[in-house]
Structures are given as structure tokens and as C-alpha cells.
Amino acid sequence: MQAILDLTIKDLEYYLKSKGFPNFTARQIFSWIYKKAIFDFERMSDLSKSLRNFLKQNFYILGLALIQKQISSDGTQKFFFSLSNQQVIESVFIPTPRRLTVCISTQVGCKFACRFCASGAQGWQRNLTSAEIIEQIIYPAPFFGTKFFENAERCGIYLKTASARVVNNLVFMGVGEPLDNYDHVLKAVRILNSPDSVNIGARKMTISTCGLIAGIQRLAGENLQVELSVSLHAGDNQTRTYLMPINKKFPLEKLLPACRNYYKKTKRQITFEYVLIQGINSDLRQARKLTKLLAGLDAKVNLIPVNPFRNEFSRPNKLEILLFRDILLKAGIPATIRRPRGVDIHAACGQLRLRSNEDYKRDFEGDLSAAI
Ligand code: SF4
Questions:
Q1: In a designed cystine with 37, which of 141, 191, 229, 364 is the match (CB 3.0 to 4.6 A)?
Q2: Which of 105, 119, 242, when mutated, tests ligand 1's pocket best, judged by the most ligand atoms within 8 Å of its CB?
Q3: Is 132 a catalytic residue?
Q4: Which domains does the chain possess?
Q5: Which runs of E-coded beta strand occur in 107-174?
Q6: For the chain, which ranges sit under pLDDT 70?
Q7: Closest CA to 132 of 8, 261, 322, 5
Q8: Measured in angstroms, how far is the CA atom of residue 209 from the centroid of ligand 1?
Q9: What is the pLDDT of residues 130-174, one digit of tens each?
């Protein structure tokens, strides 16, 4: 059995044609799954009986099981899914009055062990497939009202409701390093971007990286208008290596030229993420170093007061945060301060996958395959 969400429409057309089914049936199947949120081949009423039987014998649509959903006091929702091998992944839905951001995971765990991030603390277990990446936003569609995706409204199947939300911002910033799972992530981006599926604009998708240079170079050649977000977190190598061990392999003198080349090739502004940690990287000298690193680059900086994890780090006070931001602004670098969302359910930046798989088994009473 194969995951149908792993296929582009071209893949599916090719496959069905090779089995004697007409080309156009692939578009019908995509429409049922991605536009009508129907995840049961039997309910795809305009397909022939023989095609429905063929699909049931060869493909599955949903491979994840939803094991729990947590809702923060600020409206953020965290979904826990178990995979076929009973490992657990998390994704986060962040509604605001203007948009619905979905933060999805790309790996089970992470190899890169950034000090301020829970996701790397348990190590890396495996890459997610394109289907498992896509499914994180397809599966919860019914939880967010009926007008879930931009083009769902056009197809007329979804009704408008007061609580309806449209996913209009997708960030590959959950558990894992997206560029370390490059092929699956890029295939998921292309499928989600396709007008035949949910048609999320490439500019509404952000791929983050801790600074994997080969991945940045590859992405620059993709001719895709996705946003790139690079985790910087320090203005010098010593501090960055302390926070992010990957800096030993790709220090600032290699990373920044790779970012400049990316900009030269794509003409797309890069966002640099900077977690502010009291006594580590939040002093004004670090801010000035940062302005020097980014001089002449079309960049913006997202300042993220650190979110609690292991009680190792704390946030700088408000004044320190504002002074840090002002130094960037005075140097002509756009800088914003990210408002934390979902901290009470450990859904904020750096807090995902706080628990090990053993903890999850205890939390969910050993049954990681039971959907709620
Ligand atoms: S910040 Fe990103 S790269 Fe670093 S440990 Fe967390 S998930 Fe991995």
C-alpha cells in the first residue's frame, strides 16, 4: 500500500494511465482529497466502482492517527499524531484575526541539538515522508471550520461559517531541520502549492534552517518563491557555537556568504531568527555585531524572547529587548519581536517534542494508535 499524498498529480496521472484508467481521474481524486477533504475512496462518488476498488487495494489516504489535541488559552492548538511505527509528531495551528498559521514538523526529533530547543534534546529518529508532512495540515481540516483552504471556497463544497479559517501561512518550523530532509520537504511544498491540491502560495510558505549551506544553495536554484528563514541567534562564532553546535561545521564566515549568494540568485529577502536569551546573546554588543553581519543584505530579523524549556535560559527584560531591536532598526534592518503563542501547552518556538516517545506512551496510556 502506498500513501497517495506522496504523489504529485503528474505522478498519479502517469500511474493510473499505466493501469488503464483515464488521465482525468487523477484530477478528480485530488479534488476529493484536497478540496473536499474526503479521505475515503468509497465516498468519491464520481469515480467508477472499479477505480474505487483499485484505489482501496493500492493506496491509503491518511497514515497518521490523531492521538490528542491541546488548546492554549490564547487559541493556539497543538496536534499530536502517531506515525505507523508509533512515534509521535506534533504540529501547531496558530489562529489570529487575519490569518491561520500552521507550523509543521519535518522529522521525528532533530540531529542539531540547539541548546534552547526541546526538539533536538531527544536526538533524531527519522525523516518524515512528503505524505506525513502534508497530512499534518490536511488531517485537521474539519477542526477549523469548513472554509479551510483558500480554494476550498471556490469549489463550493465548503460552507462559510463564523468560525471558518483559511490556512494562509505555512511554516516549516516544527520539529526537525527541513533542509536535512530536503527532497521530502520540497516535494510537499510543490504538492501543497499546486492549484490541483490546496494551492497555498509559495510566498506563504517559510522554510527554516539552522544554516545548512548545501541546502540553502540548492533551494536558491529551485525557482520557487518560498520564504527562507535562517536561525542565527548570535553575532559571533563563540556565542553561536555555544547555542548551536552546527556552527562548528558552518561558521558565520561560511553561512553569511551563502545567504548573500542566495539573495543574489533569488532576490528574495531572508528572515534571520534570533532567540533572545538573558546573559547569553541579548546584550547590545551582540546587537551591534549582528548589524555588521547583516550590513548590505536585504534581511529582516525576527527577535524571539526565549520560551521556557529545561529552565536553563530566561528572557531578557522588556527594556533590553526593545534596546536590542532599536539598534537593528537604527542600522536600517527591519526587526520585529515575536509574540509567543501557545506557551502554556508547550507549543511555542523551541518547545515542541519536549517529551520522549516513552513519555508519550505514558501520557497516552500506551496506545499511540488510537485516534480520538
Ligand atoms: S532549532 Fe531547529 S535545528 Fe535546532 S534543534 Fe530545534 S528543530 Fe533542530
A1: 141
A2: 119
A3: no
A4: 2-60 (1.10.150.530), 85-356 (3.20.20.70)
A5: 107-109, 124-127, 167-172
A6: 142-166, 353-372
A7: 5
A8: 8
A9: 999 999 988 877 666 544 554 444 333 333 333 445 677 899 999
